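pinging the channel bc i need a second pair of eyes. not urgent but kinda urgent?? the chain im working w is below, pasted from the shared doc
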Amino acid sequence: MRTVTPGHHDQPAQPVQARVTGHPSPAPVDTGAGVYSITVAAELVGTPAQSLRLYETRGLLRPDRTTGGTRRYSPNDLDRLRRISDLQDEGLNLAGIAMVLDLQDENNELRDNPPIGTHL
């Protein structure tokens, strides 16, 4: 059974300080920076750590690594893990999930950086 976290389906979870005090964090958060260990990331998304390793092996996820080789997961990685879990809940296998994520990544890239001469 998965643990549902705040903002699981409609938006990223708020920083801890914002949830506790109602005030935003004093500094902006780099959502692409790896800050969570594999144990913490697995707990936050309700997925076993071994699954996170498998997802990396299958190319579904690319966490940052410290100079010593320790995985560090970013808030963006946690969002991707939640998406993987949602797709599994819909009945997709890992190969299907890889295809969906690749297409979503490509669509996001095209939306953010349209080819020259293209008007959206």
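so The two ends are 41 Å apart (CA to CA). and Helices lie at 16-21, 38-45, 49-57, 75-89, 94-112. — does that match what u expected or am i reading it wrong
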